[in-house]
Amino acid sequence: MSPAASLGARRRLAGVALAGAALAGAMLCASCGRGSGSEKPDRRPSAPAPLEAGPETREALLLFVSPEADVLRAERREFPWSPSMEERAAGVARELLRGPTGDLLPAFPPGWKLRELWVTRDGTAIVDFDGASRSAATGSTGELLAIAALVDTLALNFPEIHRVSLLLDGEETESLFGHVDTRFPLKPDARFLQGALEDRLRAAVAAAEPAHP
């Protein structure tokens, strides 16, 4: 083969090789394009954000006056939880003063407000009322029911409370309504309770008596 013919053959072979490489590249690109186009977008819903926990609550028993007789009945109510027992007790006392939400009657006349509540080491709850509350009056039975509702409600819901002292504007008071002596701490009184409530209060009193004569 002459040198000219040999050179022409090599050029034809090189052209064929380049054409084959170009074809292979085009096929590879086409394959890549089909693969990416066949992938579907991820339509799965994202995980919902965690819900923030609401305030923890506890159930308490509030004692109000029965409309049928001079006895106390319980109304269940939810209260926000607080690590402070005194704050929880003050919240229960305030709700008691606000009155019932159902068919029971309020133990205290309208307008009574709590200024402060704290508990001493011997289990005495000091309940300090707003002195302006005293303008509302009630009879002797009403005063007995009001005091029993307050003292028994605190004793039923808080084992740490064994007796209650009453103040008006931070000062000792002889009586809330002029009938019952309130100069000394008042113990729970089950005479206005019946059934399971009476049993529960008597059990609480019996449990507290050895340590708090």
Topology summary:
Elements: H1 3-38, E1 57-65, E2 72-80, H2 85-98, E3 114-119, E4 124-129, H3 140-157, E5 163-168, E6 171-172, H4 195-208
Parallel strand pairs: 4-5
Antiparallel strand pairs: 1-2, 3-4, 5-6
Helix pairs in contact: 2-3
What does this structure look like?
The chain is an alpha+beta fold. The protein has one domain (about 55-210). The chain is about 40% helix and about 20% strand. It has helices at about 5-40, 85-100, 140-155, 195-210, and strands at about 55-65, 70-80, 115-120, 125-130, 165-170, 170. A four-stranded mixed sheet has the order 3-4-5-6. Strands 1-2 form a two-stranded antiparallel sheet. α2 runs antiparallel to α3. The radius of gyration is 41 Å and the shape is globular. Residues about 1-40 and about 45-55 have low confidence and may be disordered.
* Helix content bin: 25-40%
- Could you list the spans in which at least 5 consecutive residues all have pLDDT below 50? 2-38, 47-53
What fraction of the residues are assigned to beta strands by DSSP?
Answer: 15-25%
Number of helices: 4
Cα radius of gyration in angstroms: 41 Å
Mean model confidence by pLDDT: 80
